Amino acid sequence: MNDFTQQIQDIASRLLDNGQVDVFIAWHKGQQDFQVQPYFARSADEAQNIIFNDYSIHNLSNSLLKFRDSKEKIGIVVKGCDSRGIIRLLEDNQIQRERLYIVGICCPGMKDPLQAMRDELGFNHKPESTELAAKCNDCIQPNPVIYDELLGTEQSPRVQDRFARVKEIEAMSADERYQFFEETISRCIRCYACREVCVACDCRTCIFDEMRPQWVGRENNTTDNLMYHIVKASHMAGRCIECGECERVCPVNIPLMLLNQKVIKDVNELFGPYEAGMQYVEGQKPPFSMYEESDPDDFL
Ligand code: SF4
Ligand code: SF4
Ligand code: SF4
Hints:
It is a single chain. 34% of the residues lie in helices and 9% in strands. By secondary structure, the chain is of the alpha/beta class. The longest helix is centred in the first third of the chain and has 16 residues. The model has no long low-confidence stretch (mean pLDDT 92). The site of one iron/sulfur cluster (SF4) has 12 residues, from α8.
């Protein structure tokens, strides 16, 4: 990991020094080793603060949304999952490829800083864990799918059957499923952290913030909570790049990837083969972002 830190610092310094980019997005260290945070370096001096360690887990591609209305050129470090997020933004016309210099890292898997914090504060039932973050155990794409420069050696996917949990839920009766989701989703406190961290949630005005009309109720009750999660999951159809950040940041441990992976599985089976954000083809759109006059309109 230390090698990566030095290499990223050198690349960022070079790009910022010669004016190839105006800002370079990576990570820097907070007070504790595990408190790694997204970082925006604007000079070669600031690039010396960059680090890459076991906790550089955040999907930085989401940070590009801060720059969608500017003309600045941006350097960014991406792991496999982050790079799929960049393709999400390119396909959604949120950023232009020529504004980006992408440094890819073949990802060895990350630890979860939130988990480490719970360990540190004694809120964990398990003793200090050295395991990978949950999302990294389900990783199908550790290697960047788009980059200008690549660091590290190619890694193998870690997951055996990423839909195993989804299949268990599918095997339940309709009543059992409803009960499971009712209990699970009733824990949601509607903090919207899962939306804020999501690179695929890139609408300028979110349906959940609209008041006139108020499409989804804001009360923290089971009905409104279920509605929030059904609407969010359906908006992710064909668009979720499976970075797992929503589930990782949820303060009440709602297994959000169950919903996302169910939709991913169905989109692949019904409209595929299709995996979101796996390759960038200019002008290509996800399945539900295209319309043809011959499309059936049974639903409407
Ligand atoms: S999900 Fe994959 S690419 Fe992303 S941090 Fe984990 S192992 Fe790396
Ligand atoms: S992060 Fe968790 S608690 Fe917050 S809105 Fe999302 S599911 Fe609900
Ligand atoms: S829904 Fe979750 S897994 Fe999918 S892109 Fe958004 S944050 Fe990543």
